[in-house]
Amino acid sequence: MYALSFIEAFRTVDSAVERALSLDTYRRTNRVRQIRSEAVAAVDDIAELATVAVTGTELSGYERWETDDTVESIVEAQIADRDDLNLDAEAVDRAVSDGRLVEKDGTVLVPLTEGTGPIRNWWLLADELRDWLTELIDDARRLHRRADAGGSDLVETAFWTLLDRLIALRELLDEALTMGEFVYRSTRRDTFEMLTDIGWIAGTITERTHA
Fold it and tell me: What gap in Å lies between CA 170 and CA 185, rounded to an integer?
């Protein structure tokens, strides 16, 4: 699994919300429901991806790495859909050697599973996604207000559901990151163990976003 899987799903939600905000009326129920369905399906995809990624997370990857800046630059560029990474080749090589990056067919990818490097990548990505979710939630709130003022009850409910799922996803990312930070600060670095509650977090993400 790679960071791009999450980023593409987030981009789908972002695009759907933007299209909904650009509508001149919210009384075309079928069109509105189609956009909402696309967004909710993408949120469900994010929840499924998070379940896989978080379940395998160990706190041994929570501490700062020397190659973090390189990985963060790539993740931020992928989120912004930029190709001009302009990264130092040696920095990329170091990140590849550390297991933080994978090069496939000329593309630099950020792995999220199997190994300490990908585990560290997950924590960095989760932090970036939380910020992105904050922006999406702000847009979804605007969308819900417009639907509430100018749409039917069905349309208002549809966008309230989307907003609620986005908020639930952000809260659970907050919870995972807060728990990781707490345990990291409370545990000696040479005695990290698997976070036993992480499976519960992953399951709750799926349960709440599918409710």
Answer: 22
